Amino acid sequence: MNIKKIAMTALAGALLIGTAACGNNKKNDNNSNEAMSNSNASVEKSNENAGKMEKKDLVVFAAASMTEALEELKTEFEKENPNLSLTFNFDSSGTLKTQIDEGADCDVFVSAAQKQMDELDKEEKIDKETRFDLLENEVTLAVAKGNEKGIKDFKDLEKDEVEKIALGNADVPVGQYSEEILKNLGIWDKIQDKVTLGSNVKEVTSWVSEKATDCGIVYKTDAKTAGLETVAVADDSMLENKVIYPAALLKNSKNPEEGKKYLEFLKGEKASEILDKYGFKPLNKGIK
């Protein structure tokens, strides 16, 4: 009887030990799997962070009139170059040139006139070998839909019915073009009491759209984007030079190779297609 009891006790002890061992093994397996899962997650997170760290910001200063076109092209460029992110600064070319002179970070400059680019060239602030003429635009006289004052031509600006005219100021390319047109037509001095000056072409366009002024002189592309009526277009007799937009890499660019890549992209087929869509005339056939 005692022997049987001893045997039963020993068997129960053995079963208890076995169960404990299985439990420990299972716990160890779970810990091992959890550790492996955490390790994999850490690796994935590390890779993700590494990818983010490798992404570079390319800073582009561009004429305000290019806002819509370049914003649309941004998606295409970043799709082709996932490690690059475009940061834009849109304003009048004169303001952008001043910011560059004051030391603002800029990789690529796209001006709405040769004047500002020529000045930077003389100051040896651009990489001359990268400079090229990107596109051509036109200067137009625009009115809001309905043309309430019946304006048909630049010379109509001196009529009594026309009370407010929006123009770009003297350091804005579209303002400089406007002054040249109106002086060549002999009406610049006659309309000064009617003129309201904007800091860039977008501001001028906005005033015309909101009917804050009777009309404004803006680029063809801005009139098109804003849904304005173009009543007149400046011809060669009004402007000595065509409205050409040059582009170039800045000499002090922090990302020169990436900047050159972007400039080549702007010469490409897709860029030409989008620029044309917004009313610009691309000056490059489009590199596939």
What does this entry look like structurally?
This protein has 288 residues and is α/β, with parallel strands linked by helices. It contains nine helices and eleven strands. α2 packs antiparallel against α9 (269-277). The longest helix is centred in the N-terminal third of the chain and has 53 residues, at 2-54.
What is the CATH topology assignment of the largest domain? D-Maltodextrin-Binding Protein, domain 2
User: Any idea how many domains?
Assistant: 2
Proportion of strand residues: 15-25%
Instruction: Determine the structural class based on helices, strands and strand pairing.
Output: alpha/beta
Instruction: Give me the CATH architecture of the largest domain, please.
Output: 3-Layer(aba) Sandwich
Biggest sheet character: 6 strands, mixed
In DSSP terms (H or I, runs of 4 or more residues), the helix count works out at 9
**Which strands sit side by side, in order, in the main sheet?**
2-1-3-10-4-11
Q: How many whole angstroms does the radius of gyration measure?
A: 33 Å
Reading the helices and strands in chain order gives HEHEHEHEEEHEHEHEEHHE
The CATH superfamily label of the largest domain reads Periplasmic binding protein-like II
Mean pLDDT: 87
- Secondary structure tally: strands: 11
Q: What level of helicity do the residues show?
A: 40-55%
